[in-house]
Task: structure prediction
Amino acid sequence: MSRKNQHVVPHESGWAVKGEGNQRASSVHPTQREAIEAARQSAIGQGTEMFVHGQNGQIRERNTYGKDPYPPKG
Result:
């Protein structure tokens, strides 16, 4: 399994979970809540990030499930 950030994006059938850079959706869900849960589980399993996009396509939420450096740089 490759380590790709997970994106929750609008889809014609509801909401889709897509791995970063993928053309096709990993899964499609009727509600955004269900898509977020699927993306969260995938991101936790891979140790990557999850991005939640709004209806307009802009990122509205971002969560990291990998190892963040502590203390953060900058």
